[in-house]
Amino acid sequence: MTRYGSEKILPYKNAKEGKGDQVERMFDAIADKYDQLNHTLSLGFDKGWRRKAIRTLKPYAPKEILDIATGTGDLAIALYKELQPDQVIGADISEGMMRIGREKVAAAGYADAIRFEWQDSLWLNFPDNRFDAVTAAFGVRNFEDIRQGIGEMYRVLRPGGRLMILELTTPERFPMRQLFALYSHTVIPLIGRLVSKEKNAYDYLPASIRVVPQGRVMTGLLEEIGFRDAQVRTFTFGICSLYTATK
Question: Model-level pTM?
Answer without folding.
Answer: 0.94
